[in-house]
Design goal:
The complex is a heterodimer of chains A (about 170) and B (about 140). Chain A is built from seven helices and four strands, in the order βααββαβαααα. Chain A is an alpha+beta fold and about 170 residues long. Classes of the chains: A alpha+beta (about 170), B alpha+beta (about 140). Strand 1 of chain A pairs antiparallel with strand 1 of chain B.
Chain lengths: ~170, ~140
């Protein structure tokens, strides 16, 4: 029997080291640890790697600190478009969604595509329908709004208008 | 972007990635996250990978699948393959970012070539570890 292991990453969007207060740093550590705990609980109970990674990612999506789900950044049009994917190494089954807003956990929408369709990637209204039909919980747009992400958008748009947008990796990363 | 990779007690691998994309991205822009083989990949014979970074470059270099290919065809270890892709293929082509990866023996690798990575790992021993801005 293999000894299990799990890794997570949680990108925070446009946040620089200089802006990271001790309180914020502690919150990020806590968010990452809660994600690890969720996945670890699955694996320790002889659960599957797929259940573990989706459990961990759901925790990160529920945490506004991270750029996914509830903490997603905004497009230049001031809306949110979320992408997610899952892949199962045992079967090479995969599911992905792109450009969606609505499912509380986009990763579960991706899993619904994998488990309930013959396809790998769906976008647009049918991606949402597959998620809804699979019982994935939905939220209103207000659930996903965070002031910090909105302020980051305004800052970036101003830099763009002023012609001083830089190539800061923190701006280009999810 | 957030993500997770895991190896379970049966030696099965899985990867999951989720993102809001880039701040002020063009409407309709899709990065590497949902592109299988670029930002998300899993195959029990090699590895599971979840990436984050400059998505267009991850797509052009099929970053996740490249790690698996290096293991499958080149005989490289997970860590050798992952570091090569992140520190050379991506880094030398304006592809800042990083990834987390696991192989079917439960070995973990998490290279990155930029500032601002938030990571966590745990093994069967219950050794929970979280890191910010350092490998």
């Amino acid at each position: 029997m293999t000894r299990f292991s799990l890794a997570v990453h949680g990108g925070a969007g446009t946040i620089r080291r200089a802006n990271l207060t001790p309180q914020a740093e502690a919150a990020y550590h806590n968010g990452l640890k809660r994600a690890l705990q969720a996945g670890h609980a699955v694996l320790a109970d002889h659960g599957s790697a797929m259940d573990a990674v989706t459990a961990a990612v759901c925790v990160l999506e529920d945490e506004p600190l991270f750029n996914a789900g509830r903490g997603a950044v905004f497009t230049s049009d001031g809306v949110q478009e979320m992408d997610a994917a899952v892949m199962d190494g045992a079967t090479r089954m995969a599911g992905a969604v792109a450009g969606i807003l609505g499912p509380r956990n986009p990763v579960m929408a991706a899993r619904a595509v994998m488990e309930h369709t013959d396809h790998v990637m769906l976008i647009g209204p049918n991606a949402l329908k597959v998620a809804r039909d699979a019982g994935v919980p939905f939220e209103d747009a207000g659930y996903f709004f965070t002031q910090a992400r909105w302020d980051a958008l305004q800052s970036t748009l101003k830099m763009r208008r002023d012609g001083i947008e830089d190539s800061d990796p923190a701006r280009r990363h999810g | 972007t957030v993500g997770a990779v895991a190896c379970d007690m049966q030696g099965n691998l899985a990867a999951a990635t989720s993102t809001g994309g880039m701040t002020a991205k063009a409407p309709g822009r899709v990065g590497d996250t949902p592109v299988i083989g670029a930002g998300t990949y899993a195959d029990n014979a090699t590895c599971a990978v979840s990436g984050t970074g400059h998505g267009e470059v991850f797509i052009r270099f099929t970053a996740a699948a490249e790690i698996a290919a290096r293991m499958r065809h080149g005989g490289q270890s997970l860590d050798q393959a992952a570091k090569h892709v992140v520190m050379q293929d991506l880094a030398q082509n304006d592809g800042s970012g990083g990834l987390i990866a696991v192989d079917a023996q439960g070995n973990l690798s998490r290279p990155f070539n930029s500032e601002g990575m938030y990571r966590g790992t745990v093994t069967q021993d219950g050794d929970f570890q979280t890191d910010i801005f350092r490998d």
